[in-house]
Amino acid sequence: MAILGRELTDDAPVGATITSGTGARKPVTVPVHRYITHAFADLERQRLWPRVWQLAASVDHVANSGDVYEYAVGDLSVLIVRGDDGVLRAFQNACRHRGSELCSGTTAGNTEIRCPFHRWTYDLTGKLREVPSRRGFGALPSADYGLLPVAVDTWGPLVFVNHDLDAEPLGSFLDGIPDDSAFLGLDDFRCTFLVTIPLPCNWKTLIDGFSETYHVQGIHREMLPCVDDVNGPQQLWRHHGKLEQRYGLPSPRFRARPDDQAVWESFVEIMGTRAGVSMDGDVGPAPAVPDGNDLRGVLSGMVRAANEAKGLDSGAFSDDQLLTMQQYNLFPNVTIVTFPDLLSVVRSRPGPSPDECFMDVFAFERQPAASTAARAQPMDVTLPEGSELPVGLVLNQDVTNARRAQRGLHQPGFTKITLSSEECRILNLHRNLERWLGIAPSEIENDVSPS
Ligand code: FES
Ligand SMILES: [Fe+2]
Fold this sequence. Notes:
- This protein is an alpha+beta fold.
- The chain folds into 2 domains: about 1-50 and about 175-450, Alpha-Beta Complex (Naphthalene 1,2-dioxygenase Alpha Subunit, Chain A, domain 1); about 55-175, Rieske [2Fe-2S] iron-sulphur domain (Rieske Iron-sulfur Protein, 3-layer Sandwich), CATH 2.102.10.
- It is about 20% helix and about 25% strand.
- It contains 11 helices and 21 strands.
- The chain has helices spanning about 35, 40-45, 170-175, 175-180, 205-210, 215-220, 260-270, 295-310, 320, 395-405, 425-435; strands spanning about 15-20, 30, 55-60, 70-75, 75-80, 90, 105, 115, 120, 130, 150-155, 160, 190-200, 235, 240-245, 325-330, 335-340, 340-350, 355-365, 380, 415-420.
- A 9-stranded mixed beta sheet has the order 1-14-15-16-17-18-19-13-20. A 7-stranded antiparallel beta sheet has the order 3-12-11-6-5-4-7, with no helix packed on it. Strands 8-9-10 form a 3-stranded antiparallel beta sheet, with no helix packed on it.
- β16 and β17 form a beta hairpin.
- The chain is globular.
- The relative contact order is 0.19.
- FE2/S2 (inorganic) cluster binds near residues 95, 100, 117 and 118.
- Fe (ii) ion (FE2) binds near residues 209, 215, 220 and 398.
């Protein structure tokens, strides 16, 4: 029997602040079949994806009238449409005649949605407008044959959809995250590209890697001189989680504190462009630290100056905020990484088998608050498996880790994963999965039948 939920009661996650390193509790385990079996993936297909709010696109994908974006997850496909009236709507991607898919990918300038099969045509509000040889159908009331609606809403620069029209509103589903992140002004970010890459792991194996920083000392060792990977406070809401992590100072894991030169070299390798420093070639000596300051303060000043050079006002942010990552984990499959001048979103979608997923990376750039530049559709790119992502060292290390993280889960003696309190955001994912799938927290191993 794998007992889940020792760490957190149903009520405890709301607003709870967790610090890692509490040693008195026993580890929590989660059955490994959740990551490798078709039965569990089927349960997710039936009960999770059609019923949960999920990130579908950036606002930039559908900013202008006539923009249409297809979001696919498993066998579900949704069309997100910006109408002539400026209203955002979403529809199931199925023609009301014989069900053909209507559109794929991202398109702009549409004035209607026309089925390629027999050319039934819908307006951008989803209303049936035209049926060739209509009399052959007898009475065919247009009001009964509109595209099937999907719930859609936005938060900041992100568009969410939910097939469940009775689901709680997005604002409520997002718990305290909009308020918690308000100081970052996420509305000012524009999506510049969306990169998709297939990976040989379960969608949860991938997203779990963005729900803990325990693995920094495993696969991201280059980061250790410039990040406190141990003491970052975590917060759990009902559905979602958060980590705050401070950069510009060394990990407490070092017995001997690295000197400023080591911190500097690591910082430049991980995020030098934020401070206006090229990440290629010799980084040179660490900047001089004036009396009364420290290297972290100097790095904050460099980030502030680099932002000002780009027309971005950092006046609202403290030095500490400029070098502290806010990482939000949105149930079920999204991680949002932000600094005041940086927004990057990773989404994990299920693939054709439990051992496959799609990793989507949305890259954003902050615009000056007063910018009047029109939003434009980002560049969407799908890379073949094994490609190098154009998003820096750290994410590529996570990608490289995906295959071995998944393959080990298949070994016959390995029946459960074990979580520390530092990995509480992974546990929160499972607690929510249990609610959505209707399985008991203390389920019997390998039993995925509903309770
Ligand atoms: S399936 Fe769309 S018009 Fe026939
Ligand atoms: Fe990682």
